[in-house]
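pls design
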């Protein structure tokens, strides 16, 4: 009898354990981006990006008037960062290349030796420690000289970006297996051009953002096809794009149609790639076309694709990259509602996006709603089918730099639980999870006031000393046991 009870207890224990177990082969990583961590903004032959110029010219746009001139000094402290990643047990480290560090002219006619050396060191150092590099080509820091030529609103950006991607694949493709082209098109185009609050600081709501959107889609596809045609046979890696998604739920039943539209707008940069038909989400394309016509425009403010462009862009991804942080309730904009983050849909759809009172608040826009992540993963599958999904960012901000970061640790725990449910209960093909961020860094408009690191960085210390927080220890434990 006693033996029987023991068997029962043991099998119950294994059951509960395995229920919290991530699938074999599931990978855990952490992320950063070049402008936010590297510093060394004018070292060697590096030229300014739009973020160098924007923060220098308009410090009042940054909460603490700061910039990324030094940031975490990862340009010099890359070995420390690798050690942190190793101590955490990370399977991969997601970072971005600074376009102007590699190509000082923005064009591919000149490659910086120091830039190449820096990224080679980082990539080789990671691999030597058993950590896979996952490389983002574009995390917002466009070369300023290309901005002077129109930047993302010049259709030639697709060629410039394609040439840049070819240089990166040629230099690093033998060691980098997972690439992403653009990090968060919705921020690069919509948030930036609708408000002017992000570099390049141009305010052109409803126009600039859509021109950017079309060019970005073509640029992405150009870079994907270059990999496909010139490098895949040799290197056999993966190329994708990273979209930020906010989970949208209706404020009340009367706002369901609007919520549908908000979700479709959220797929503006996915539908052309991942849907079977390709092109813009039809409901959004017709919505903006009709609105443009009423406003007296000859053509839609959202530039259309030719049928060749639709085919060119369709299917250009080997995985679906999603950054998820937060959720919003959707309602029709009330009088005197103002533009706030996330801005998506506020200009054309006239929506207002509000957090539910029960969601826990972080800094500014970041409220925590873990089930939103599971719901969004399911929505992606429902909309586009069974793509491999990599969660390329998820994380929580605090205003304090405390080491015992209880709220951040809870955020990770709650969200990882939802990822596991999406995999085990809903059969969504999620293969990786990335914490944002490995280290505190320059948080764009919030400067250094908003902290996302599972590792604290002391920005008053010239050595930028790094100390793992409680959340880092928690995450290391999850990775070590491959379970929650
Ligand atoms: C991401 N939202 O931006 C970026 O990829 C990172 O560079 C950034 O540091 C991180 O998230 C934290 O902000 C986002 O409004 C900006 O939902 C806005 C939203 C989400 C992500």
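designed seq:
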């Amino acid at each position: 009898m006693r033996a029987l009870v023991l068997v029962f207890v043991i099998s119950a224990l294994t059951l509960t354990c395995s229920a919290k177990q991530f699938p074999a082969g599931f990978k855990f990583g952490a992320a950063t981006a070049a402008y936010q961590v590297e510093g060394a903004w004018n070292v060697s032959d590096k030229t300014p990006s739009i973020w160098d110029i924007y923060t220098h010219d308009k410090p009042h746009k940054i909460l603490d008037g700061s910039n990324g001139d030094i940031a975490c000094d990862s340009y010099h402290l890359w070995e420390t960062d690798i050690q942190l990643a190793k101590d955490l047990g990370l399977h991969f480290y997601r970072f971005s290349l600074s376009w102007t560090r590699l190509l000082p002219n923005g064009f591919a006619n000149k490659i910086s030796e120091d830039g190449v050396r820096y990224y080679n060191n980082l990539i080789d150092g990671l691999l030597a420690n058993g950590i896979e590099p996952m490389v983002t080509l574009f995390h917002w820091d466009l070369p300023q000289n290309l901005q002077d030529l129109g930047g993302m609103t010049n259709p030639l950006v697709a060629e410039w970006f394609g040439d840049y991607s070819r240089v990166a694949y040629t230099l690093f493709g033998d060691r980098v297996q997972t690439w992403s082209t653009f990090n968060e098109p919705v921020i690069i185009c919509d948030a930036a051009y609708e408000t002017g609050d992000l570099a390049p600081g141009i305010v052109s709501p409803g126009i600039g953002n859509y021109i950017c959107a079309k060019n970005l889609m073509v640029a992405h596809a150009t870079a994907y096809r270059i990999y496909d045609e010139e490098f895949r046979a040799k290197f056999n890696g993966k190329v994708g794009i990273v979209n930020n998604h906010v989970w949208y739920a209706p404020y009340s039943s009367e706002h369901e149609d609007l919520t549908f539209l908000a979700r479709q707008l959220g797929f503006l940069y996915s539908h052309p790639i991942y849907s079977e038909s390709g092109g813009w989400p039809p409901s959004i394309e017709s919505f903006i076309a009709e609105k443009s016509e009423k406003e007296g425009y000859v053509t839609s403010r959202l530039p259309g694709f030719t049928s060749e462009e639709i085919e060119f862009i369709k299917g250009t991804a080997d995985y679906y990259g999603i950054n998820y942080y937060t959720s919003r309730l959707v309602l029709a904009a009330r009088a005197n509602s103002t533009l706030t983050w996330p801005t998506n849909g506020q200009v054309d759809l006239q929506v207002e996006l509000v957090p539910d009172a029960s969601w826990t608040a972080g800094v500014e826009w970041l409220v925590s709603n873990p089930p939103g992540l599971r719901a969004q993963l399911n929505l992606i599958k429902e909309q586009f089918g069974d793509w491999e999904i990599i969660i390329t960012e998820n994380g929580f901000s605090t205003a304090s730099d405390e080491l015992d970061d209880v709220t951040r640790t809870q955020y990770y725990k709650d969200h990882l639980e939802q990822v596991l449910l999406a995999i085990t209960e809903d059969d969504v093909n999620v293969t990786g999870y990335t914490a944002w961020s490995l280290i505190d860094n320059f948080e764009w408009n919030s400067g250094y006031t908003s902290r996302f690191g599972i590792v604290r960085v002391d920005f008053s210390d010239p050595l930028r000393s790094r100390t793992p927080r409680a959340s880092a220890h928690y995450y290391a434990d999850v990775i070590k046991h491959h379970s929650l």
